Amino acid sequence: MDFSRTKALFDLPEGVIYLDGNSLGAMPRGVPERVEALLREEWAAQLIRGWNACGWMDMPARLGDRVGRLIGAAPGSVVMGDTLSVKVHQALAAALPMRPDRRVILSDSGNFPSDLYMAQGLAGLLGQGHEIRTPDPQDVEAAITDEVAVLMLTEVDYRTGRRHEMARLTAKAHAHGALTIWDLAHSAGAVPVDLAAVDADFAVGCTYKYLNGGPGAPAFIYVAPRLVDAVEATLSGWLGHAEPFAFAPDYAPAPGVGRMRVGTPPVLALAALEVALDIWDEVDMGALRAASVALSERFIAGVEARCAGVTLASPRDATLRGSQVSFRHPQGYAVMQALIAEGVIGDFRQPDIMRFGFTPLYLDAGDIDRAVDILADILATGRWDRPAFHARKAVT
Ligand SMILES: Cc1ncc(COP(=O)(O)O)c(C=O)c1O
Ligand SMILES: Nc1c(O)cccc1C(=O)C[C@H](N)C(=O)O
């Protein structure tokens, strides 16, 4: 795929350089037409018949297979639905009873808070004395011991972009008898992932970031085919039942990953995601990664050569990074607001991190050079230091 052509597939505001696809991806041009067609030709015209006539009920599995191709998951091992936080709960609730004699959930201090909150909530609900350990990311490997029931990590750190070595950590977890849950929120569509090759047990992720599924797009969950039939689905909703339309009083899990479905699929959101996946179907993840590394390296080189007062917060070695680069600045929030005001959109994470995401589908070298020019000028002139740029917004 020629990435110089893919930018035209996205609807980006004129003059904006969008470096926040690591938080919310850009909109593929075909989304409004597809969603409108679904509203008019499917919902309005077909009404309840749409579930059969338009294939709505199969969307979680159909789209799951298309996401699966991007993360090295075999057909039939990924299903879409709910939010990522819910999928973290489901994966952990499925994994812990598979290690009934162990009480340690091992994560890291850099994990996204929602993953840790979900683990805390589940541990409380289970009331079995599970302990959540969160060493610093570089100390995780040493903390994998025979006490660990589940190793639950986000592959790419949302703040720094630091990337865990999934194959090595999974192998070590297995050698110590632990199961693994990988959160691929900042990996899917960002870096090549091969769940089957690394022999991962569970994986979860969202589709509103690099995959460009839109705000609130549904999450996905992967369960290794060798495990799935032993998985007890604790969020045992009717659409994870083997025969939902038998309306039996007792739960019986669907075969395979279908048991990780819960309730009615979000059809409108899945339709938007489907348009994004039409683009992803053509993408070679190796080529995308090479383009992402080139853009990231260009940005780091430009910023370090021309911007005073910022320090790199991401690993310098590209092989240890995802598809984002973060810089620290003591007034990072205000600097980021000034950048956004001038059309360069990134974001900020406490306490001082400016994040920049690199999405080769709709960014090119010229965008990177312009972003560096603008950042250098904002820092050199100090024009970030205005009251309006210090005022905190609710969503950062
Ligand atoms: C790594 C990670 N896990 C979990 C979440 C939470 O996802 P959601 O809000 O879709 O539940 C996010 C982002 O918000 C994330 O980046
Ligand atoms: N999911 C988000 C939202 O609903 C609003 C604002 C931001 C988000 C995010 O995804 C944040 C993101 N996980 C992060 O890496 O910080």
Automatic annotation (TrEMBL):
Gene that this polypeptide is encoded by: kynU
Keyword Glycoprotein: no
GO function term, MF aspect, one: kynureninase activity
Domain of life: Bacteria
Organism: Thalassococcus arenae
Name of the protein in its database record: Kynureninase
Pathway: Cofactor biosynthesis; NAD(+) biosynthesis; quinolinate from L-kynurenine: step 2/3; Amino-acid degradation; L-kynurenine degradation; L-alanine and anthranilate from L-kynurenine: step 1/1
Cofactor needs: pyridoxal 5'-phosphate
Binding site for pyridoxal 5'-phosphate: 84-85, 112-115, 154, 183, 186, 208, 238, 264
Keyword set includes Hydrolase: yes
EC assignment: 3.7.1.3
Modified residues (N6-(pyridoxal phosphate)lysine): 209
Quaternary structure, from the entry: Homodimer.
Enzyme class at the top of the EC tree: hydrolase
InterPro entries in alphabetical order: Kynureninase
Matches recorded under NCBIfam families: kynureninase
Protein family: Belongs to the kynureninase family.
Keywords, ordered alphabetically: Hydrolase, Pyridine nucleotide biosynthesis, Pyridoxal phosphate
Catalytic activity field: L-kynurenine + H2O = anthranilate + L-alanine + H(+); 3-hydroxy-L-kynurenine + H2O = 3-hydroxyanthranilate + L-alanine + H(+)
Physiological role: Catalyzes the cleavage of L-kynurenine (L-Kyn) and L-3-hydroxykynurenine (L-3OHKyn) into anthranilic acid (AA) and 3-hydroxyanthranilic acid (3-OHAA), respectively.
